[in-house]
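Hi L.,

You mentioned the student needs an example of a multi-chain input paired with its predicted structure. This one should do, with 450 residues in total across all chains.
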Amino acid sequence: MSKAPLTEVFGDVPAVYIDFKNPKAYLALRPTFALEDELDIAFDWWPVPVSAMSRPQPEQPNEDRGTRHRRIRAGYYERDLHRYASVYGIELADLYRNPDVAVASIGMLWVKERARESLREYVDAVFGRFWQQRLALDDAGAIEALIGEFGVDTAGFQSYASGEGRASFERTAAALREAGIFDVPAYVVEREIFFGRAHLPMVRWLLTGKAGEPPI
Amino acid sequence: MTDSFDPFRSDKPLILYIDFKSPYAYIAKDPAYAIEDQFGIEIDWRPLTLDIPSYLGSARLDAQGKVAESNRTPQQWSGVKYAYRDARRYASLHNLTLRGTTKIWDSSLAGIGMEWAKAQGRAILRSYIDRVYEPFWKRELDIEDSRVIESVLAASGADLSGFADYRNGDGRARHEARQQQIFDAGIFGVPSFIIDGELFFGREHLPRVRWLLGGKRGPAPDIAYQHFGAGSAR
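Structure written out for the whole complex:
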């Protein structure tokens, strides 16, 4: 599963890995918050940049089967994201944007280290505004202002974002990718990686001592 | 025979596309049976023979389980390895054995056999599906061997008269024509559920499928690999 020692990468606390530019991670937000509330737990939230979704290519004459398969599959996933976004009343903007998520992710680490109680609000706000096209993830000033909205001290954020915070973010992201986190949302429970919010019943089952019938 | 075939339409309320070489389709089988039983419906089970190398690359392992041949990218390998591990962990919770595979199997003959069983009734179809899936995933059944498929059909209670001609003639031709129609219609993987002309790829959509079959009572559910207890119709 991984070349890196998992014990060094994944702690004992159940963790969630997200990427603000990824719509699947956005759709996982509310059910993941709901599970935290239900079980009265706090996941260890981490940002990890993964590859942006590939925009389906227009149909080409004489395209080979593999190309056609990938185009059809990508089109399906696009429709699927929109149909489930409606479950949460979410309008998803362009799914295929690929901004630099470093500053928004470093902002997440800043809030997590200094005001853990505001982390949920921060994550929720970044996702919501980015997907409503009201926030540029690479705008350090906007991210700093957003952090400030929650009463979190922002003194030193800019130098953190370009120095220690960036180094920490890049180091962590590299270790996570090495450990097998190649998609989001990813949940790690008992050092098992689960990609996708569809696994939340499994995550819940594991966190409740495997009580009751296992998920299918 | 292909004239009346519509990949998205059936006289049954739910279509389910499966492929015997897919572990995800295997672990969707019993939950699909549960849907049939709970809602008192008959699913239109259809074979979809995946052309895996065209989109996931191909690979062959040697007797020691080492990669002997491969044209997969590192990303494709990561995805394939995760998928097997993921299917296996869910399978193990339900006492299903998923052994590793050393090659990409040609499951078309098993799919043709499935159509033959289906034409002889629901009980024979279920028996055939069960008798193929379990031993195949224990690596005890060669689904490319016509004698093996015939013996499974016979054990399932199917009349074999004419099957030899069918599997080489009309059955093969129909299977290949339908596979093209299915792909052309945009159905690309298994398990795929079709309800009211809408495609749901993957068993994580079962909450939505159940919600649709149950008359859309309550809010529309999200995706989940969820347990469904007796009487649960979410």
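You could point out the following to them. Confidence is low (pLDDT under 50) at residues 230-234 of chain B. The two ends of chain B are 37 Å apart (CA to CA).

Best wishes,
N.
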